Amino acid sequence: MGYKQYIDIFSALLTPVIATVTTYIAVQQYRNNRLKVRHDLYDRRLAVLRATNRFFLSAWQSRGFTWDDLKEFSLSKSEAHFLYDNELDNYLKDAYERGFKLLFLEDERKRSSVEDDQKIVYEMRDHQKWFGEQRDTLNQRFRKYLSLKALK
User: Fold this and answer.
1) CB atoms < 10 A from the CB of 56, how many?
2) What is the C-alpha to C-alpha distance for residues 152 and 146, in angstroms, rounded to an integer?
3) pLDDT tens digits, residue range 109-135?
4) How many Å apart are CA 142 and CA 56, to the nearest integer?
5) Among candidates 132, 102, 133, 135, which has minimal Cα distance to 120?
6) Whole-angstrom Cα distance, residue 96 to residue 73?
7) Distance in angstroms (rounded) separating the CA atoms of residues 142 and 140
8) How far is CA 103 from the centre of its chain?
């Protein structure tokens, strides 16, 4: 066999080798992009959990709970519609409404009479109690969305 035959054989093999290497690179890029999307989704979902946790803690303690806390939670909650199913989205909407009600009652309390004040305080405590109870189960509610196995 002469050099010409070796050159012909290597020339013929060059195209399939290039195709194989190109396919391998494309598959690796696809896997990396998929992992990045999963990672970004996880980060966004975790940010909503953290914001919810801060909001619940603030509302439960009530001291220092402000309209700014509600506004910050509202911004985080608005993204939840795209990141979670309707069940969790509705749960966060309910939490927002309870936080709004708690702040509204606080403002009402400042303008109320002594008789109405006690009734308002009891209603505020009910909302605060709800926030305290929810903090215990919050991670469970978010767990299925933050499981790395579930992020496909």
Assistant:
1) 22
2) 11
3) 888 777 778 888 888 889 899 998 998
4) 14
5) 102
6) 8
7) 5
8) 24
